Amino acid sequence: MTESKSCKKEEFKKAFLRVISVISLLLALAVALVAAEFPFGFAVAEGSSMSYICIEADGGKVLDESNADARKYPASTTKILTALVVLENVPSDMKFRVPDCAVGVEGSSIYLKRGEVVKVGDLLYGLMLRSGNDAAVALAVATAGTVERFAAMMNERARRAGARNSHFVNPHGLHDNDHYTTARDLALITAEAYRNEDFRRIVSTSSITVGEGENTRVLYNKNKLLSQVEGANGVKTGYTTKSGKCLVGGAVKDGVQRISVVLGATCDMWQLSKRLLTA
User: Fold this and answer.
1) pLDDT of the chain along its 279 residues, tens only?
2) What is the C-alpha to C-alpha distance for residues 249 and 73, in angstroms, rounded to an integer?
3) CB under 8 Å to 80, separation ≥6 — which residues?
4) Which of the residues 51, 72, 79, 166 is marked catalytic?
5) Cis before 229 (ω within 30)
6) Residue from 51, 66, 76, 108 carrying the catalytic annotation
7) Is 253 a catalytic residue?
8) Cα 92-98-103 angle, rounded to 5 deg
9) For labeling, which of 86, 162, 235, 265 is most exposed (least CB within 10 Å)?
10) CA within 13 Å, CB half, 81
11) 227 belongs to the catalytic site
12) What is the rounded distance in angstroms from the CA atom of residue 236 to the CA atom of residue 263?
């Protein structure tokens, strides 16, 4: 009796271990399949509103994407296009007086003063490091005379960059129902901007002092990727209540410039961007 019970106990133990082994194998297979489908470690749930894409700047090869053609509000990532249009049309050393319409613009600000004399290059740092909405309006007026004419220039430049599903009505990205883009379009626009040496220098700057005298400003970059990702060299954060959290990232991986775009993030946009840029 005792020996029989002992044998049954041993058989049960072996059977149990076989079941555990099969379950472990099935779990490992499931993990492998998910990793193959989502190599960067993020699966977007069905029905998720988040969009993302990662491309190589030269040639536009797509490394990963999800909902990349969904229409989204870009918030302050709009300023990538703003900076590009300004850099291609106005000398960075040009000085001008801040127009009244640029003073007190809502949202992020570098606190421009009415009538203050500023330099285009300095405002570009205020635009891209501190996301100054007042800087965006001042630059738009200095470039095109009015925000409306500048928006027309933005749309024309976006089309030339290959953006087919975008429309811009302002230089800062404050919400407007008619101001939208897609992750794919914004990646193409950013790739175009990266061809400009001045743009690359500005967005890769961690901090800088601009202006002089009582108008001196110390500007710190809001983009945490610059300090957290090896090879990171840009580019821009964005947020409104309608757009959700947005982040365009840039980094060199194995000698290749990558650009990531996350719009309407439903997960940690910093972690997703890191994986897209480095995986």
Assistant:
1) 455 555 555 665 665 556 566 565 555 454 444 443 444 444 444 445 899 999 999 999 999 999 999 999 999 999 999 999 999 999 999 999 999 999 999 999 999 999 999 999 999 999 999 999 999 999 999 999 999 999 999 999 999 999 999 999 999 999 999 999 999 999 999 999 999 999 999 999 999 999 999 999 999 999 999 999 999 999 999 999 999 999 999 999 999 999 999 999 999 999 999 999 999
2) 17
3) 128, 186, 189, 190, 193, 235, 236, 248
4) 79
5) no
6) 76
7) no
8) 125
9) 162
10) 35
11) no
12) 12
Strand spans (E) along the chain = 51-56, 62-66, 95-97, 117-119, 207-210, 217-220, 232-240, 244-253, 256-263
**Predicted model pTM:** 0.84
Q: Which residues of 125-146 are buried (b: 16+ CB within 10 A; e: fewer)?
A: bbbbbbbbbbbbbbbbbbbbee
| Residue 76 appears among annotated catalytic residues | yes
Please tell me which residue in 51, 66, 131, 166 is annotated as part of the active site.
131
Alpha-carbon gap, residue 251 to 234, rounded angstroms: 7
d(CA 275, CA 279): 5
Token pair in block for residue 241: 């209540």
